[in-house]
Amino acid sequence: MDVYKKAAQQKLRFTTSKGTLTAEQLFDLSLSDLDNLAVSLDSSYEESKGKSFLKKRTTKDATIKLQFDIVFDVLQTKSAEAEVAQEVREAKEYNQKILTVISEKKDDELKGKSIKQLESMLK
């Protein structure tokens, strides 16, 4: 079953430094807040399972694991989106630099023309 569907069915909430949040509100957190939450949930999950092969997992363990899976997915999604946004910004900056150089070259070309040539170019 989809982790988000499980979260909705269980009315899962996440205790964060920003308060108690729903799964969809996790997308409003910063990457560092999400990372801190994921680390905290991972530690809680590791502590809860102990080192026994005889003990079965409890419902609490399953809930912590579900919370971790959701937070980790949100973290990966937001991280990928941030990388794409950075690439788009860099491409825009590069294109703007090229357009500036093109404009300067056109200006230099016009400056090299005679007055008669410039007057004939007027519309």
What does this structure look like?
The structure is a single chain. This protein is mainly alpha-helical. The protein has one domain (about 5-120). The chain has helices spanning about 5-10, 30-50, 60-110, 115-120; strands at about 15, 20. A two-stranded antiparallel sheet has the order 1-2. A hairpin with a 2-residue loop joins strand 1 and strand 2. Helix 1 (about 5-10) crosses helix 3 (about 60-110) and helix 2 packs antiparallel against helix 3 (about 60-110).
Fill in the keyword field for this structure:
single chain; 123 residues; mainly alpha; rod-shaped
Write the layout of secondary structure elements.
Elements: H1 3-9, E1 14-16, E2 19-21, H2 31-49, H3 59-111, H4 115-121
Antiparallel strand pairs: 1-2
